[in-house]
Amino acid sequence: MNEQVISGYKSQSLGLHGTIPGADQLREKAFSNFEAQGFPTKKSEDWRYSDMRQFHKQAYGLVDHAAKPELPDMLGETAARFVFINGRYSEDLSDLGDLWQAISIRPLANHFMSNEYRVNELITGTDAVSCLNTAMLRDGLVLSVPAGVEIDDPIEIVHVMSDASNQAAHVRHVVELGEYAAVSVIERFIGDDSAYWTNSVLQARVTEGAKLRHIRVQEDGANAVHTAKSYINLDGGSEYICTNVALGGKMSRFDAEVRILVDGAKAIVNGVALAGSGQSHDMHVHISHIAPHSSSDQVFRTVADSHGKTSFQGKITVAKDAQRTLADQSFKALIFDKTAEANAKPELEILADDVKCSHGATVGQLDDKAIFYLTSRGIDPETARQMLVAAFTAEALEKIEFDDIKEALSGRIATWMLTRTATPKA
Amino acid sequence: MAATAKTKQQVEDMSGDYKYGFSTDVDMDMAPKGLSEDVIRFISAKKDEPSWMLDWRLKAYRAWLKMEEPNWAKLNYPKIDYNDIYFYAAPKSQNKPKSLDEVDPEILRMYEKLGIPLREQEVLAGVEGAAKVAVDAVFDSVSVATTFREELSKAGVIFMSISEAVKEYPDLVKKYLGTVVPQRDNYFAALNCAVYTDGTFVYIPKGVRCPMELSTYFRINTENTGQFERTLIIAEEGSYVSYLEGCTAPMRDENQLHAAVVELITLENAEIKYSTVQNWYPGDKDGKGGIYNFVTKRALLKGDNSKVSWTQVETGSAVTWKYPSCILAGDNSVGEFYSVAVTNNYQQADTGTKMIHMGKNTSSTIISKGISAGKSHNTYRGLVKVLSGADNVRNYTQCDSLLVSSTSGAHTVPYIEVRNPSAQIEHEATTSKISDDQLFYCRARGLDEEEAVAMIVNGFCKEVMQHLPMEFAVEAQKLLGISLEGSVG
Amino acid sequence: MLKIKDLHVQVGGTEIIKGLTLEIKPGETHAIMGLNGAGKSTLANTIAGRDDYTVTEGTITYQGKNLLDFEPHERVGEGIFLGFQYPVEIPGVSNLNFMRTALNGVRKYNGLEAMTAADFMKLVRAKAKALDMNPDMLKRFVNVGFSGGEKKRNEMLQMALLDPKLAVLDETDSGLDIDALRIVSEGINAQRRDDTSILLITHYQRLLDYVQPDFVHIMIDGKIVKSGGKELAIELEEKGYASVV
Q1: Relative to the CA of A257, which of A229, A402, B41, C206 has its CA 20 to 30 Å away?
Q2: Residue to test with chain B: of C51, C80, C85, C93, most B Cβ within 10 A
């Protein structure tokens, strides 16, 4: 691996020394872990479908200017909005609403100082890209919901990148749910056409009976590289419901690592990816059933247009003691022409015997018969295709409990269908 | 191999233990232990090979030295010491016998004990209605007998050991050897190219439907020996052959290495049906001993409208690493893979297939059934790949795993890579335990627990078993039951 | 034939049968009626010897032997047959193969020679015909894709083949239309002899119009709370559980 790239990141990480009291050691440790691994290559099994070359060529710098970009409208009714510009928390642009009365939610840096939540100990991540995120620890949110508190409307976290070519933002969020608490977090990623890299990590501990809804909407700029990882730990009877929507960026990667640690928890991880010309979306899910009587479900739908590529690696592991596990996974991909590509690796690793696990995967194009049926009722073929793609992707949006947000996302998909570059041949 | 009633009886008589575990006392001719260019020269000289063959071997050996043993499979075994293996062991008798009368009687007795009475099979030739199976018997590394040669040659079919073919049909061998599995394809294939000692060569001429099933019976006998056979089957335009393969080995405390290469080529409108019942010694209840089975099997469907069907029943070996594959190059070609893999005790199997769709309108079917018992691990690993020029590809894959014990593992690792929009790829996989309801229902109808398990497992494997030739299916079904004995409770 | 004394049965740690006593003599047909959750199916499964059905107290004596000493398949050999409420599907196993294996298992248990394939085919065809079964059902996989009525007929066919001394029929009438009910009832009546006994478990009185029981028992919360003759079932049908008990 390129020495210059490594030393570039090393000096960046060292440059952050003293910015957050108590975080220096953590960064150092993470950096040496990153250094030992280096960036993944195509040979790394977990990254086989992503082109990692840009990471080996140059070290992305840390952005050090605060832009004033225009903010997008909210996706729907929200309880609060937190804004990060080029990886830094912007107090001015954020709106906490009434939330502060019910829960604790603060910039990550403050928590290190107060030592209230021992964030230092909570920070996890072992793969190279997450380690680099930790080595660049600078900003993020710590969201802590006390036991029994349920927040109805979602909390929106908007990440905006602006004028940041060859620069990166490494944001880290920590979510802590007390027993029987419930919260919904929407993470949004947007940016301009500069060739930036956003590398974010969200980690959550969902304690007994609690429920975390997580919606991710990735609409990064056309030249952006997006990597993201969610580390989710689930306690007894808790629930994690995640929907990931990948639309933007040149290359995007979403990685969910969900561990079911105590009996009876339930994990749902769904996703939609639409890849237009030159885009590659890679989604990677690992649900690990460590405790018995738990269930998980995955529904992924991807569409690859001309010169687009979608990939999915979904792994279910069931540990020896995780009896009575129910796990299901469904992956379906559409590809529109010969320059498009769809890859899938649905994997099962089962070490308990009293389980029911299954996966199904299909790759193909829109059903000609369905298009014909719609057109024979007077619908033009392009609209027919849009309708069918909407129906196809809707299955993966089903678990979003907020109708306005679900509608907004369906709208995004319809727009993508309208504006995409090529019309597929029937 | 299983054509005679005697074989069936043999299998019926087997109890729970591995019944092929005896060894045979035969005078052997051996190369020195270990691997070097000298050992390869020794093997080549022993076989009196032409110089091009030796050069080919040496090239592979040099490539192998620079390669690394693959470690991506879900297999765990101690490092193999390639210098502690005999790469050549042959019954001392010499030149290949012209008739069975010249074969060492000790070897004939061994094959009889295995249920393959070579002599009887020839005698059976005159009996009307008896199913005929021509057998090539490979003992340790060397072909000791091939039956029915004359009758086959009347039809123009060449069925002989590959060593003979190198001498008798050098042009055919040169033309095809290593074209489906290149020397550097993988570590074990390269090793095989360097040291292969024998194997089977089959050539079916244009338009010929092979008049009988062809079969090779592999037997590892000598201690510390590796077995490295090669099989090359060429089906010319419009021809058809059904080929069967069986394997056993004595029970020994040490692990023995088996690294074979099988290459199939089908030209236009040709079809090869390749069936395997793999029953190498699996090791004992504590995981001691057993065969390490690293096999590269691949078919090139070169001609349009050709078809290759792999059917395998894998019950043996301590470690299995095997992915019989199809390169579907010809338009409208059809690839099939039907597999049952049973692991018990400490066995590990990592097996599956690759279907590479290059031609238009090509289709493939993959049905894999894995059964894990004891403390074993059973992995399905497969790839379905559709290149951008391959229009209208169809694939259907179904992988089911059945867990018979709480200490075993069942893993499914499929890869799907598609670059053509007209492809229709469907993949389904399930993992579940043997159902309590089914077991109780069977027991409530008077079956004991082992019978009930055997019945349910056989039902689970039905879709695969029905693709085996009749005689083989009977034996394979019994093998399933035997492999799982002692796994219940 | 069967003597159950103060039977207590737990399933998954919960007591379902709480002190049940019942005696069935040869030649008798008994019906147990009760609402869902009364423990009727638990009783049937316990007699057949299902794992996880733990007898904590009491005894079951069958033909003078302690039934609880026998494995499930041995009980079949001893002449007990359970007709399932929900017959199980076994993909890949043909119905014929299944029944032949079962029959020969029972014959072997009783020291009889295995029946040849030809004799078996003759027997099974005759029995299937009596039940008005489509011969095609014999070749299909056990219960796979069978309608509710076909499954129940298949149970009756198995009963006819195994010719049990004691048949325990769990909700055999559920999901049957009137024609199927009549055919199934004929199957049951054909099994009634001086030396055989039948225990019917049912929700409704309907079946009892076709198979007239000698005794009717009402089961509530794991116990038999009232016993009587055929008239008890009619009374129950007219007045409901609340007023009868």
Answers
A1: A402
A2: C93
